[in-house]
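Let's practice the habit of predicting before peeking. Look at the sequence and jot down your guess about where helices and strands might fall. Then scroll down.
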Amino acid sequence: MDTASLPKVSIVIAALNSEQTVGECLKSIFELNYPRDSLEVILIDGCSTDDTVKIAEKYPVKIFTAPLNAPAAYNYALKIAGSEVLGLIDSDAKVEKEWLRKLISHLDDPKVAGVSGGIETWNIENPWARSIGYDIKNRYNRLGKYAPRIATMNLLLKKSIIEECGGFDEGLPAQYDTDFGFRLTQKGYRFAYDSNAKCYHYHRSTLRSYFNQQLQYGKNTIKLYFKHSSLIKGDEITDFWMNIQPALILAAAFFFIVGLLEPLRFFWYTSALIFAFVIIYYVYSAAKVSLRFHDGSAMRLVILYFVRAVAWVSGAAITTAKRLLGNRS
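Done guessing? Here is the structure:
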């Protein structure tokens, strides 16, 4: 696609306390091999208490501050963006120079509502972050040319189709992208996926931060399943086995607790069998990833898988308890 025919694009970043990464994020956007007069960059700050805004002000970017979560920020950007194409980039991500040029041509297909690039690890020197990156790459490698949904970490979308699908669900601070993808495919659209357009994401670097992130996913995943029960069966990125792991962990814990009663002590065997099965599968899966990427540190995935399952169980329990008490927020 020659320069003269390139469409205008509004790049949108939703940020909150992102001082560690927002500078590199914006730097990568302004270094894109794309006509500068065809780019509009909007940063929606969710009332950061650090230097996120101060750092962003060093760049020619439109900054709006409001107490908005990510889907609300994107809906707000939808109203003010001056381009038909919106580019969503996480504030803890950066893109290669050719990212936009590689993706934009995919939108020529009228049935393609959006297109995403491949995800690499930004902070690759950290073994936890590197292992998380291997897990994400392994899951995204299941995708073909098209996908029913894709994360908003690095994503181009047609503005008119976002509006047609009703925008993003602001009641889902996480998993709003899965919900949006479900509604979009119901209307006959799809996402394109081009792994050659590289985005580098700053993954969680500690178990605590990873648990807290996955806890939010767990809270919102159960909300998502209340809304679209058919999504429980999973997809290419989050398959049914990933969805069933929290239930197995919960079952193992339940049978262990039941076995505390002396007449029911035999349930400890059931608990142990379930737990052993899950751990053996985790070791097997982590070993496959380690071999695939030639990095023994990926065996940390055994721990990460377990932490993720426990976080999802905990998040689902919190949301379910709130619903039973009449609180649907």
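How did you do? The longest helix spans residues 267-293.
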